[in-house]
Sequence to fold (426 residues):
Amino acid sequence: MLTTSKIGKIQGRISVPGDKSISHRALMLLAISRGKGRISGFLRGADCLSTMACLEQLGLEIEDLGSELVVYGQGLHGLRRPHRALDVGNSGTTMRLLSGILAGQKFPAAITGDHSIQTRPMDRIAIPLRMMGAVIEGKAGRDLAPLLIQGRNLQGIDYTLPVASAQVKSAILLAGLYAEGETVVREPKPSRNHTELMLAALGAEIESKTYEIRLRSSELQACDLQVPGDISSAAFFITPAAAMPGSHLIVKDVGLNPSRTGIIDVLKDMGAGISLENVTKLGGELRGDVVVRGGRLRGTVITGEMIPRLIDEIPVLAVVASQAEGTTTITGAEELRVKESDRISVLVQELGKLGVDIQELADGMQIKGPCAIQGAEVHSHGDHRLAMALAVLGLFSREPVKVRGSECIDVSFPGFEKVLGQIIKY
Ligand code: S3P
Fold:
């Protein structure tokens, strides 16, 4: 159980573990590249370790040198039939992206995960992958995990995503590496583009525009990849620092890909003092330091194209919205209902227990701040981002906030409590 309570301010200079989305992609793409590639900054969270274990079951050789991983790429057709079902644990990214790769293999494979994964929608990948020619069967005839995927000779498709999802987009693009002809993915709103950038860095024939990505079957050539710090993890410190007058926080070397920096834009809109320093580009990905000076925030409206740019930061944004002056309204975020938990419902439930004036909307929520936070025991619902968001809300509470089920934080941020301990000042 993780317990937090009121602090004076946030101060210090920290780093956060590697970006989860980029770590998954680095391993998967190097697995199907030709040659040897090194990954530095790889996130050793439970989700990315699930990706690693699944790929090892598919015959991938990975050498762990501690500070970096060396991946011995098998080429597009070098993976082997696994002896048992692949287990993705809690990781939706592993489930969906790996399914795209499995669709192009010459062998069948079963893929499944924990209870949460078995309730999350997989029709969003099964439908386009079937259109490309894969044979996919879900549990009890429904498109839920476990999935049995029988690879086939695939055909490129021209597919418009019904929801903006980088996981679905990436699954189709990975299958597209194996497909005859061109694969085109069209997005209703731009989602994170790490797959496109990494495919380009590895030499794929890919053309990427804001709402449309085109790809042709291509062999990938391994290269060394450097994973920046995860802005979604950094957000758990940037956000409360921005809302606490007197705070001064520097988060070093964080990924600043514009498809992920919605949190910074929204916090600035709420009145936060945030600047970016030492910004560089590596492997197509922007990275740099985030400098935050605390102050008073005001409520805001978050909707439309902003949502995919901060989808994972909504739990912690809801937390600081409770400390901001005025109303914050978040709409167009119905995707939150199919994340690791139904994040709309659990946020309303758990933040409500701590005294937040929060109202549930079909596709989001409305929060009226500032709220006086009261201590209580709350529950993570097995959702890592909810657990961290609740711990952050405790920093504004006079009585202790006890987060039950906080061990799930290891999914994306092993060491969260330790880093938090380095920057809180009483
Ligand atoms: C991810 C994409 C997002 C995000 C998830 C990681 C990725 O999901 O919520 O945590 O790595 O591609 P969707 O693409 O399904 O929105």
